[in-house]
Amino acid sequence: MRQYILRFSLRIALVTVFLMFCGSLGFRIWFPDKYFIGFYGVILFLAVVTILFHIFLVSASNLRPATFINRFVALTGIRLFLFLIVILVYIFLVKYQPVSFLLTFLCGYFIYTVFEVVAILKYLKNFSS
Asked: How far apart are CA 39 and CA 51, in angstroms?
């Protein structure tokens, strides 16, 4: 399991570097007035949270299928609530380029979520066989 987590973390790191490069380039070329320095922090935050929650999901895969499903749903709910808190705190307290923040956050959330779901499905498929 430790080897799998390291491979997953490396893949997340590669996705993170790719997103930072493409996002930075995209903001600077197409939306220079919307560029904000917090872009890198948002991407790093999403990457770290994705890795941590993926570790919990992989450890829960050793349990019965019903227990895994319950933990998956619970962790997804907790993650969504955590992200909602982060978004609200940023929008109401920081207030610096909220549109750019939301666009970055939602795009990053979608990309990391798809990546994590595909990875956990592959892991479960290999784990069960």
From this structure: 19
Its pTM stands at 0.88
Number of folded domains in the chain? 1
Residue range 56-67: mean pLDDT, rounded: 83
- Residues 31 and 92: their CA atoms lie apart, in Å, by 23
57 and 71 in contact (C-beta within 8 Å)?
A: yes
Q: Is 64 helix (H, G, I), strand (E, B) or coil?
A: coil
Mean residue pLDDT of the chain comes to: 88
| Enclosing domain of residue 108 | 2-128
Which residue is associated with the tokens 């956990």? Answer: 120
3-class secondary-structure state, position 35: coil
For the beta carbon of residue 28, count every other beta carbon within 10 angstroms: 10
Q: Are 47 and 12 in contact (CB under 8 A)?
A: yes
Give residue 35's pLDDT band: very low, low, confident or very high (50, 70, 90).
Answer: confident
- Angstrom distance (rounded) from CA 1 to CA 63: 14
